[in-house]
Write a structure and sequence with these properties.
The chain has four helices and 16 strands. Strands 2-3-4-1-5-8-7-6 form an eight-stranded mixed beta sheet. It has an eight-stranded mixed beta sheet with strand order 10-11-12-9-13-16-15-14, with helices on one face. It is globular.
Length: 249
């Protein structure tokens, strides 16, 4: 089956700073880290209490890191084949899972579904529930069409013309936001948290070591202690939607 049964947001950070990333992201998500996995101990899952995980960490060997999606399916090989027919490139075939690259050049994985069904609870007024894909103008329409076709999720216009959101079926924990960049530069991705009160969440994150980078109309860009950026967004952490006073996704 090609149906996406669960989603994970991967927070990618430099391997040399993985311990800093682990301390920060377990604190802000109210989780504990799994035992490290991988040849270099580069993977770990952030485990919530009493629900299923939907956030993982990866230590990357080069670059500043960012974020990527893991899409879980009962037949990940079929999901990967569908992605390739839609324009993705195969990066690595690991047998029961695959690494792919989207038309805009963003990495993602098709992985087995292990029965996850219960999304984590809101933690102190916020929830990491979104991966934002930052795409240059030349590839934005094609990238949006790719993800819409691959997921089959509802595509909604955002609060500003440069945003479009893919909203998954109820119960899936991580949605996709596509942002059209203002200029031509390589595509990238970052995690977003939905916050009932951005200022309260920002203050908490700063106490944990984050630093403010930019203030937007209803979002704040922060840099975590491992050097990666992410956003706090003014959305309902329960539903992921914007307040009624703000149109769009």
């Amino acid at each position: 089956m090609n149906t996406i049964r669960w989603t994970y947001a991967f927070v990618d950070r430099p391997a040399a700073r993985l311990a800093e990333a682990r301390s920060f992201w377990t604190a802000v998500t109210g989780t504990r880290p799994s035992e490290p996995r991988g040849e270099q101990g580069e993977f770990m899952t952030l485990l919530p209490e009493g629900t299923d995980a939907c956030v993982k960490l990866q230590g990357v060997a080069s670059g500043a890191g960012g974020a990527h999606l893991d899409l879980c399916a009962e037949d990940p090989a079929a999901l990967a084949a569908t992605a390739r027919r839609l324009g993705a490139a195969l990066v690595a075939d690991h047998g029961d899972w695959a690494v792919l690259r989207s038309p805009a050049g963003l990495l993602f994985c098709a992985v087995p579904w292990h029965g996850e069904t219960v999304r984590p609870a809101v933690v102190e007024g916020s929830r990491l529930d979104q991966v934002c894909l930052d795409v240059p103008p030349s590839g934005y329409d094609a990238e949006t069409a790719f993800w819409a076709a691959l997921t089959g999720w509802v595509l909604r216009d955002g609060s500003l013309p440069e945003f479009r959101a893919l909203v998954p079926p109820a119960g899936l924990p991580v949605r996709i936001l596509l942002q059209r960049l203002g200029g031509e530069r390589p595509a990238s991705a970052h995690p977003d948290l939905a916050c009932a009160d951005i200022e309260a969440t920002r203050a908490r994150h700063e106490r944990l070591g984050a630093a403010r980078v930019h203030q937007g109309p209803h979002w704040t860009v922060l840099r975590d202690p491992a050097g990666g950026t992410y956003c706090l967004t003014g959305r309902d952490p329960g539903t992921g939607g914007l307040p009624a006073a703000v149109s769009g996704a």
